Amino acid sequence: MDVLDLFSPPTRHWFEQTFPAPTAAQAGGWGAIAEGDHTLIHAPTGSGKTLAAFLWAIDRLAVDPVPPERERCRVLYVSPLKALAYDVDRNLRAPLTGVRLAAAHLGLEPPQVTTAMRTGDTSQAERQAMLRHPPDILITTPESLYLMLTSQARRMLSHVHWVIVDEVHSLAATKRGSHLALSLERLESVAKSPPQRIGLSATQRPLERIAEFLGGGVASGGNWTPRPVTVVDAPRDKEIDVEIVVPVADMTRPEDSAAHEATAPDDPRRRSIWPAVYPKLLDLVLEHRSTTSS
Length: 294
Hints:
Blueprint: H1 9-18, H2 24-34, E1 38-42, H3 49-63, E2 75-78, H4 82-105, E3 115-118, H5 124-132, E4 137-140, H6 142-149, E5 162-165, H7 175-190, E6 196-201, H8 207-215, E7 217-220, E8 223-226, E9 229-233, H9 274-287
Parallel strand pairs: 1-6, 1-9, 2-4, 2-5, 3-4, 5-6
Antiparallel strand pairs: 7-8
Helix pairs in contact: 1-4, 2-3, 3-4, 6-7
């Protein structure tokens, strides 16, 4: 089965018009998430794993009946980095807008999926407005999630269906991770039904331990039973593209290059290759978004 068959026509149309094909992280992740499994997606940066975590929920929000306003918050995204939370808020706009436009193109009612962010910088007025009009997707940090669960804001979380934990590997072995694990268990007691947990990891192993942290467990009769978590391991082989660039025609005679035309014949820099290297380096820096040298 084509994994895109899992999605509604607008979501599939947007994806096919935007990307050549699903990545390994997306193909594996969507299958597990659609089955309702708690899922850990392990893939490198740039593999599309954030979209793998979000798109199934976005599709469900787009096609399922809109619940009463106080029950609209169904997706909770937890980022350990506040700056990353802002980045995801910005990146969510592309699929949300794309699915909405695709629905209109197909003659369907465009979905109106809302997002909001709750961090330490969120004003009191914004927090109160969020309680009155909960978003469909709430983006927050571990610390803000804890504060929400200890305040009246926990009512907004009672209908969360999916909780996405990003950069889970950076939390698992830390005090912040222990704190978050407790908050996730408290969320279990607040939510009307146990939310599906979706974790994203880029570098950490062993994956079994990270999955155990993500899933948590249930204590009964003095025993602790971990929740099962499906691990989608989609590593990508690194591709190294090496190019040797010589900025002069003859490295034994750098003084003959155009870079030395403005220097005097007795200038010691005429015997150096660096006046020819610097302009080339500048060109490479300006042509790319990131540059390293070795």
